[in-house]
Amino acid sequence: MHDASAHNQVAHHAPPTSFIRKHVFSLDHKVIGKQYYGLALVAVLVGMALSWLMRIHLGWTNFAIPGLHLLSKNGAPGNVMTPEFYLQLMTMHATIMVFFVLTTAPFAAFGNYFLPIQVGAEDMPFPHFNMMSFWVTFVAFLVLVSSFFVGQGPTLGGWTQYAPLSALGEVTGPGQGSGVVLWAISIAMFCVGQLLGSLNFITTTLDMRTRGMSLWRLPLSSWSWFITSCMGLTAFAVLMPACILLILDHVAGTSFFAPGGSVINDQVQPHSGGSTLLWQHLFWFFGHPEVYIAIVPGMGIVSHVLVTNMRKPMLSHRVLVYSFGALAVLSYMVYGHHMFVSGMNPVSSLAFSFPTLIITIPSTVIVLIWLGSLYGAKLRINAASLFSLGFISMFIAGGVSGFFLAQPSTDIMLHATYFVVGHFHMVMGVAAMFGIFAGTYFWFPKMFGRMMNETLGRIHFWFSFVGAYAIFMPFHYLGMAGNVRRYQAFTPDYMQPLVPLHQFITIAALVTGVAQLVFLYNLFHSRFWGKPASDNPWQATSLEWSTPTTPPPHNNFGDKLPEVYHDPYQYGVESSLGDYVMQASPEQVKTVHDEA
Amino acid sequence: MATTVHEPPKIDAGRDSTRLPGNGNSRNLVPADGKLPAVRDYSPPPASTGIWVVLASIGMSFLAFTSALVVRKAALDWQHLTLPPILYLNTLVLIASSFALEVARRRIGAFMRRRESQVASPTRWLYMALFLGLLFVAGQYGAWLQLRSQGLYLSTNPNSSFFYVLTAIHALHVLGGLTGLARVVYRLNKSILRKSTLDATAYYWHFMDGLWLYLLVLLWMKL
User: Fold this and answer.
1) Is the Cβ–Cβ distance between A243 and A191 less than 8 Å?
2) CA distance A224 to chain B (A)
């Protein structure tokens, strides 16, 4: 046995002194986390602006959007969007949101900043890889956005890039040549970045935990990042080969996905035998776990925020963790439900439908534990807890429509409609965004040493919450009415009566988007002029609130690493601090029940 | 050129294992009047865990390539391709390289445990592993030249496409391994090599070996 006092001496690595090492090519996980957050912030603004352009076009098809021609040479004659340009915007909106916002913010940004602190480590074990992870992701974002300014603009093939549309080159539409190649390069680079990140997350969780921090003492947020990194490790490792093969179909004349005998615009395409379904298999083997890569960190963050504000532990910490794990495992077995209309064997559809219905079980268990824990709790209402409740609401409302889509017989009718768009925007898009907001309001004081404005936070929540429902609930109705997705206009056909609803959705989207300026103002104003935060403003228990300073010092815990004596959420007890005992406190836990 | 090293290298310089965080320990600390229960502080260095994470990821990528090959093979344009004979020689070279590295690893291991106060420097075995690794990559290039001479290029048919892609991506990974080996040699010469770094590099190198055998069988059976 080692001498206990000697154990937790921190092996120092000196804080950097140069500007470049400190703020640009930093090795500090906290700086890298903030860099990821900044990247996600820029990306979400770009993605949201693109969605506004699409929504305006869907509501008022011939409306000239001032300055639109600056984004595309040929896509906006007279500032009116062409159908092709609409599809290009749609593709870029989805790609930016899924990869550079929903994956980077809740997982890479918060995970980088808080995972090492929550496990009681001074940094991640491979800081150079960690730095590389961010910068590769950053360059990937630049490569993707650069496609607006190269050739015929970005790809119009959708974020799923189905072959043969994606594999045959410019002949299939503007952006399908250089746009697809840049898209695939960007996503392959993104995969490298996330693989490097996953390597650090997994080893941090397994090898860097401080004394006394057993796995079951990890907070739920750390569990969610760990499980997500395991998913990322295997999912991105499959998408990258797919992107390499797609690039080769474009630049090297191979025929992995490009089918033979295609005649497009009276031209026979010089390919033979490529498998279009192969792309779908490879893509969705990544694509479905990606959905959980986006949402599981949000679940962990929301659980962490809620438990702090409920002042009592979850009904079952372990069952929540097991359910996160079950989601991760099952996410690989359900990917075929994205392909029910691909013409695959109905038996295969049935085989994918079954685990898809099974995956609703852990999802339901998670929701029931949240609701059961909330029942009777004296919840502290603040912006973070409101967004957590909003997350649960969105996850339930969006998840329920998943039951219909899980079954091939109903999915075939709904697959190409707005029903699916409504489903995934609520259950994965908005829910994950609410997780990001909850995390921001909760951890901002620790990250920047200042409090965010609570009133502005609540205003931001109510506009976002009502706005999100106003935008995405009608999508379900549109889908059931037969409104086909990916169309750029509905005027000349049977969907015309639905246009007023589209106009309502557009107005809701614009208002909700403007409300996000409240958040931006709050974020930047509080960063510099917010009320100074104490070390533990929420009276929370986990290790990020035990750092000697706020924000934490370079090595997180100063001269000594903390020792952990308790499960993560000792709330509703009696102690010298009040109703909670911190993980790093050697104080005995006295439950209220014992006292009675 | 055999050299003799008289002093063991300073293993894990700058990483005093007693000053590193543990792995949380399987038993929990409990607050008990300052008396801590016995805890096992040892945790594997992150490189030991990290290498398995890296290998899992690489393995997953090659599984994806394999499934692509299997699916693509169903098309009518699949044509038989005879593998260039030099591949079998390359295989022997890569296995020999693994063997050389393993000898080096064992010698360094004995050295670090101070079982032998004076042993012939293991660096020559490391250099041999490096050289054989480079020879393997050169041999793979030779295989591509052989295919080219038959008029088989990357885009000629799906078989040749898969051949070039799989061998090239494997060769890239081998080059990555060679960089790792070069780093091991550098650190050994500077006496700052960690055992975990050496082990991780060796596992990676052996994995490349196994992966190549797998690819060879796959290409032989499917192309």
Assistant:
1) yes
2) 18
